[in-house]
Amino acid sequence: MDSKPLRGILSMEGAVDRVFQQMKQKKLSSFSTSLEDARSRYGEKLKHIEEVSEEVRQTEVKDADLRREVEGLAKQKQELRVLL
After folding, report:
1. pLDDT tens-digit map of 48-70
2. Residues 33, 83: Cα–Cα separation, whole Å
3. pTM value?
4. Of all helices (H) and strands (E), which one includes residue 79?
């Protein structure tokens, strides 16, 4: 019985397995790169959100200060009317 065809089939299986493993590694590598890119973009967006949140907080503080100032001026105006 000639074993050449069997060896040929086995070597083909080995070649297919090697190609499959290479493709799997490339996919994992590509996925890893994509994951790093996504993390980078997420980090940038998170930083932007934090910056905007800080701006909003500062604006709210300024708004509260201005409200207190306006209320104080309104009170002074009312006191002046009473005096006049």
Report:
1. 999 999 999 999 999 999 999 99
2. 75
3. 0.50
4. helix 4-83
